[in-house]
From TrEMBL:
The keyword Transport does not apply. It comes from Aspergillus pseudocaelatus. This is NAD binding domain of 6-phosphogluconate dehydrogenase-domain-containing protein. InterPro entries: 3-OH-isobutyrate_DH-rel_CS (IPR002204), 6-PGluconate_DH-like_C_sf (IPR008927), 6PGD_dom2 (IPR013328), 6PGDH_NADP-bd (IPR006115), HIBADH-like_NADP-bd (IPR029154), HIBADH-related (IPR015815), HIBADH-related_NP60_sf (IPR051265), NAD(P)-bd_dom_sf (IPR036291). Belongs to the HIBADH-related family. NP60 subfamily. The keyword Oxidoreductase applies. Residues 3-155 form the 6-phosphogluconate dehydrogenase NADP-binding domain. Residues 160-279 form the 3-hydroxyisobutyrate dehydrogenase-like NAD-binding domain. The lineage of its organism: Eukaryota, Fungi, Dikarya, Ascomycota, Pezizomycotina.
Length: 285
């Protein structure tokens, strides 16, 4: 099967690289400066999203949001989807995913939803968690082609289920990030050695692969994005909308959303999501 990949951002580049190790892949990105990052792979470049779809049997989409996806839904692109499978890995609202499914089906193609849990490092290692949704038969057909990206790919149900699962999982992730930021800030303001604090936290039951990575980034003052702050803020907005639609409450998420909005206004959007610690601490770290 020939694969296509649209969107070479922080997550898209390692995902496309992993696919290109196993299958023929044609890639496209809005800005051409990302193409050299795949020059040592067998990936080829498509001039437009429509050209990628024409050359592919399965097309992966990893674009920033629904507006970015709408911008590629040209007449030529939709015509090229006939008989093809489109796998959307981007985080978008459920209603947009449902409308995208309708567009793809109208064009004669199949649509699968697979948002992923994980950031840049798991993406590089092919250790993402895939949250599959859609027609079960089509999902099973694409499983061999998502294996290079994931350590596990879980079938969540019909279209919308994958995204809803991600909203719930990311609720914990976002709140954990703010909690970790507050914890480190308190340790610092009490005059503690943050290296020692990091060792203690690593030995505690609350420790995780995530906390270990983020504590180390703060200690090294390394704000390069593994999961971008702007992406995280986008996620908080999707979660808040999902909370409202589910008619439930998430007071912590509303507070986290405000803090991420402050971080975005402070110009931290292109940094790692843990840079919200700068806002939580009330001063630049």
């Amino acid at each position: 099967m020939r694969l296509g990949f649209l969107g070479l951002g922080v997550m898209g580049v390692p995902m496309a690289r992993n696919l290109a190790r196993h299958f023929p892949v044609t890639v496209w990105n809005r800005s051409i400066n990302k193409y050299p990052l795949l020059k040592d792979t067998n990936a080829s470049i498509g001039e437009t999203p429509a050209k990628v779809a024409q050359k592919s049997d399965i097309v992966f989409v990893m674009l920033f949001n629904s507006s970015a996806i709408k911008s590629i839904l040209t007449k030529d692109f939709k015509q090229a989807l006939q008989g093809k499978i489109l796998i959307n890995t981007s985080s978008v609202p459920v209603d947009f995913s449902e409308s995208l499914e309708a567009e793809v089906q109208k064009a004669g193609g199949h649509y699968i939803e697979m948002p992923v849990s994980g950031s840049k490092v798991p993406a590089e290692q092919g250790q993402l968690v895939g949250l599959l949704a859609g027609n079960r038969e089509v999902v099973e057909r694409v499983r061999p082609y998502v294996e290079p990206l994931t350590r596990v790919a879980v079938y969540c149900g019909p279209i919308g289920s994958g995204l809803k699962t991600k909203y719930a999982v990311n609720t914990l992730l976002v709140i954990l990030t703010i909690g970790l930021s507050e914890s480190i800030n308190l340790a610092r303001e009490q005059g503690l050695d943050l290296v020692v604090f990091g060792r203690v936290l690593e030995a505690c039951p609350m420790a995780s692969a995530y906390s270990k990575i983020k504590v180390q980034k703060i200690l090294n003052e390394d704000w390069t994005p593994q999961a971008g702050l702007r992406d995280c803020y986008n996620s908080t907005q999707l979660i808040v909308k999902a909370v409202e639609q589910a008619n439930t409450r998430s007071p912590m998420m509303r507070l986290c959303t405000k803090l991420y909005a402050e971080a975005l206004e402070a110009g931290l959007g292109e940094e790692d999501m843990i840079s919200v610690a700068k806002i939580v601490g009330g001063s630049q770290l």
